[in-house]
Amino acid sequence: MRQGNNVHDTDVLVVGAGPTGLTLALELARRGVSHRIIDRNEGPATGSRGKGLQPRSLEVFADLGVIDQIFAAGETGLPLRLHQGEKFTVELATSAGTGPRPGIPYPDLVLLPQWRVEQVLRDRLEALGGEVAFDSALASFEQGADGVVAVLENGDTVRARYLVGSDGGHSTVRHLLGATMSGRTHDDQYFLVGDVRISGLASDAAYAWFTEDSGYLAVSPLPHADGAWQFQANARPAQDGSVPEPTLETFRELFATRSGRRDVTLSEPTWLSRYRFNARMVDRYRYGRVFLAGDAAHVHSPAGGQGMNTGIQDSYNLGWKLSAVLAGADDALLDSYGLERIPVAAKVLAGSSRGFESVFGLRGVRRFLRDHVIFPLVKRPAVMVKLLAKTDQLAVAYPDSPLTLTDPSRRRGPRPGDRAPDARGTTIDGTRARLFDITRGTHWTILGFGARTAAKLREFADEKDVLTCLVVDSATCTDTVSVFVSVEARRLLHAKPGTLILIRPDGYIAARSTDSRVLSDYLVRTLSTTLPPSGKANSRTLGRARGCRRNGITRRR
Fold first, then answer.
1. Looking at the domain 424-546, which fold is it?
2. Contact 118, 53 (CB under 8 A)
3. What does pTM read for this prediction?
């Protein structure tokens, strides 16, 4: 480990450079927020660990400017060939097979190893002028009224306004805070996982075997990984409490015994590990000027592929709020991070735990239900489509958030707190465009539906942190505000003429109204420390409170 006594000053110290920490660093970097991201490892991780990005995470990565690289590195639609014992049972689809559809541009899980996700995010971070400081383990920190002073094991000191612990399930930040996780650890079985080369097995599918003696084995080819596969198998403790070590010979023996395939060869391991399934989380995400995110705050069973994705979206939620507070918004805005994300993590934990019990409940009634009810049901394409929809995270919403302005009069369509859907359309000159092209970036977005909202949108013309856009059914409007021609947007958002919709920087609907003053007051309350009398906010007041970037329809990077 390198030694030093350097002092670094920054606004945000991010501890841990996995997908969660890198997403946060990217969100801060594109907003021009001073930050430092450190990691205790000597270099980038090599293991697959997580291996799938859900549709909502793909939308996040599209906003962050890395979606093309994700699709180039990943794969969609890889089926799963399920076996009971050595007998092939069914091939399960892992995608809806319909492609992009109204409101959802990325409907399918993208398979790619976690180390590749991290590589894509690091490359983007470097393009924005940032970098990960590897071999930089956190030793201690103290926080005061104005910031946090962190000491690293190499002797360096980092002085920051805020610190975010995204350093995984064995989080040093969480340990130093004295925060504890509640939940359950499955002590009755361990799981062996690793990346190995496999020959003799067709790489056009993933495979899983469930044996009569409660054994489980799964292997999945990793895209563009030079022939590497991810290997997973359960291992129950012996009577003396011992558990098999994660070695290549152990992996070979388990594969041969459970699959019955003696013609398949495992070799060249790059990463081998052993773990227990946990479903645990902390009871709060904020501790003064210190925050927890990702596995540092919640750990899941891998059922449904939720862990990495939930951490990515933690950071997407927290990043714009840190930026806003550092620019002058009330510090209380940061309280909404935990208020919004803790219910999401709790729901994910409950769902993934049910999935774990459904698949790995190895005794009695649960075993019977798995073999004779669940497995036959998932053979039906309609059932599998519904199961996939339960894990895509597109339904994550914040209806009870203090940042959600409820609209009790509305009965149809996306409500405040819901994710704003995508929609297809054109610009005024007929060029193809999408609603996500308009909302992409660091700004808030106000959509006005129908020509009569043009005057209301012009009230925000001087507001430099808000992009306004008039949504019309046909390209006959020549108003000076930006125009999006899209019947689909009006239909998907169930927006009547005269409706104004305010969309947060992270793509969630904040408010709906026909009164522009409602949106003005909301923005000032949320992003300004000086509140004018109710109904008196205007674009000039808003501009003074939060001056950032200029209004327009161009993409913000």
1. Glutaredoxin (3.40.30)
2. no
3. 0.90
